[in-house]
Amino acid sequence: MVQQLIAAGDFLKLTLANPDGLAPFSFSLDNGTQVQVWDSGVICFEPEQASNDDLVLSCGIHGNETAPIEICAAIVQDILTAHLVPKVRLLVLFGNPAAINAGSREITENLNRLFSGYHSKGAGLINAERHRAKALEQYVSQFYQQLPVTSLATRNRSLYDLHTAIRGSRFEKFAVYPYLHGKPWQQAEFVFLAACDVNTVLLMQTPATTFSYYASHSHGANSFTIELGKVKPFGQNEMARFAKANDALRALIRAEPVKAAPFASSQFNIYQVYRSIIKQTQDFKLHFADDIENFTCYPPGTLLATDGDIEYRVERQGEALIFPNANVAIGQRAMLMVVPTTVTDNLG
Ligand SMILES: [Zn+2]
């Protein structure tokens, strides 16, 4: 298995052939990089001489979001075949192998609503996604914490969870910056996002059950959910649209500076959450076209949704909608309403 993996570098293929788990194994490359396979879809690289950076890249948390899976699979392949030599400690995660095989967002439950312990709440560990969320948390903890405690203070942790959205977007690429509990937004992270061609950033104001919030809150990582475009089947992604993100991620892996202009807040469309619309009854209905783009705005007063007797109308000028989905379970978010905001040019 090791020889085949080094020769062809196709870790995604190995993962998809073993969606329910893979016994751990490890080996080293001729360039000194230590490779550890921890599980199906979980591969860790330790350079012989690593920088202070501990980088986690995740994709396929939603199984049908193929472009990030292709980007990460190619990165892993290039490392295994020694075309890309990592200078940072790197953990690459293919989030939901069974859903990738099925070509579906999820098998039974949205994996990105199960982190920060939510996998074990309510009914508990009742399905594969809940088990996977718990395991992914453990792998991230193991990755960040396996160094000697004395070195931890100086480590620079990051986790970029790569997605593509179900629908089109007024801004093709955007990032969700998890709630920081009052800690400052990081200027260097905005610069990295710009290098990825991501110029729209949504600043969250509350804790969440997402993977990126988990990494940020539980491990102090610089962490984002990054939406790189629209969902397409494998092989149908126009990879040129992802070239800047791909280049920026590879620069990070080589511990090289990313190519981007100095930070200026005016380069970005920055939004914050205004309100979250929760589905309360089976009658929840959206009052706009199914193919509406994320970040669409309507004039104040426009009817957006009804839920039994409740009407949701646009309340503020510039209020924009994202992630509308009437098919979520009762009690889950059916749509997020956001409003433009600004950050200063002097971030942390
Ligand atoms: Zn997604």
From TrEMBL:
Pfam family, one: AstE_AspA_hybrid
Annotated cofactor note: Binds 1 zinc ion per subunit.
Example GO biological process: L-arginine catabolic process to L-glutamate
Top-rank taxon, per record: Bacteria
Pathway: Amino-acid degradation; L-arginine degradation via AST pathway; L-glutamate and succinate from L-arginine: step 5/5
InterPro entries membership: AspA/AstE_fam, AstE_AspA_cat, Aste_AspA_hybrid_dom, SuccinylGlu_desuccinylase
E.C. designation(s): 3.5.1.96
Keywords noted in UniProt: Arginine metabolism, Hydrolase, Metal-binding, Zinc
PANTHER family, per database record: ASPARTOACYLASE, SUCCINYLGLUTAMATE DESUCCINYLASE
Homology family: Belongs to the AspA/AstE family. Succinylglutamate desuccinylase subfamily.
Protein's name according to its UniProt entry: Succinylglutamate desuccinylase
